[in-house]
Amino acid sequence: MTKDEIIHHLAHTPLTQLLQQADQVRKKEVGDEVHIRGIIEFSNYCCRSCLYCGLRKENKNISRYRMSPEEIVQLALDIARQGVKTIVLQSGDDFAYSAQTIATIIEQIKQKADVAITLSLGERNFKDFELWKKVGADRYLMKHETADPNLYARLHPGKTLTERLKAISVLKTLNYEIGLGCIVGLPGQTLDTLAEDILLIKQFEADMAGIGPFIPQKDTPLKDHPPGDLELTLKVLSLVRITNQTIHLPVTTALATLDPEQGQLLALGAGANVIMPNFTPQRYEKNYNIYNNKAKVTLALTKNLIKRAGRKSGQGKGGSLKCKKLPKD
Ligand code: 5AD
């Protein structure tokens, strides 16, 4: 699909038509399984100043926490005992955890549980990424957030899109399965930008992509900016599925927050095939408020949702499906 075609679909194709097409592609290419990834948000310290995010370092209105390595490992093993086959370790960009500390956490989880590990720890240097891969990390989530370099620079003081894409390329070179993704409804974003987002995901041959609406956070500079549009978010999701047939697409928590009644079911009907229930301990979880009223996605609710959608829970680790097909297919 060309950029102009994508822009045309975003502007003019009825949502129902895109949903139908995305659902067909999803069914044919990745089937009915919905993969469950258990996420641990282990630290809300962050050295960045992203204008949309409640974890930004300037925010003095959240109480900061760090889980200890022992606590993280125990929780990961507990999640694995509940049958979840992927553990996602996420935090703000928090350099208080040394590369070695993170490596030890990965090693200990891998020694004791048969799970895939996804890291979502922001930008670190080549050596850190390399070490973590060596000790067993499988995947890395590093959303590109927006493919517009000027908008990127405005929203991420002191950072550039080029640096971000460089970090993603490094992860790819190191053989991580990689996750990109963008926020829909950022100030100044246009349909042109969203088309670029979709093309970037394709260009990087991403293994996964997280697409969620912008949700304002009360203690950020974007607190008065309206939330992203549900229909537009679903259109982007559908088009990512249509253009990247075997990609893993999570039902984002942001979508569950934007529309608590229908958001997740709608996403499952728009090509999504992954859900990430949250296992962050309750005493910390309320402080991981990247945006207002973040939905609490539990394992029980997730299983129920998969049933209601007429789908089935994934049995394996749900690794990348990108290379499963022979070229002639
Ligand atoms: N609205 C929507 N998504 C947000 N994120 C951070 N802040 C917001 C917000 N206000 C997303 C970013 C980040 C992920 C962990 O959360 O895309 O990559």
> Going by CATH, what is the homologous superfamily?
Aldolase class I
CATH secondary-structure class: Alpha Beta
Structural class: alpha/beta
Helix content: 40-55%
Radius of gyration (CA) equals: 18 Å
- The oligomeric state of the chains shown is single chain
Outline: globular
What amount of the residues lies in strands? 5-15%
The CATH architecture would be Alpha-Beta Barrel
- Report the total helices: 13
Number of strands: 9
Low-confidence stretches: none
- CATH topology, what is it called? TIM Barrel
Could you characterize the architecture of this molecule?
The chain is an alpha/beta fold and 329 residues long. The chain has one domain (3-313): Alpha-Beta Barrel (TIM Barrel), CATH 3.20.20.70. The protein contains 13 helices and nine strands. Strands 1, 2, 3, 4, 5, 6, 7, 8 and 9 form a nine-stranded parallel sheet that branches. The longest helix has 16 residues, at 15-30. It starts with a helix and ends in a 16-residue tail after the last strand. The mean pLDDT is 96. Bound molecules: 5'-deoxyadenosine. 5'-deoxyadenosine binds at residues 52-53, 143, 145, 183, 212, 214-215, 217, 254, 290-291. 5'-deoxyadenosine (5AD) binds next to loops.
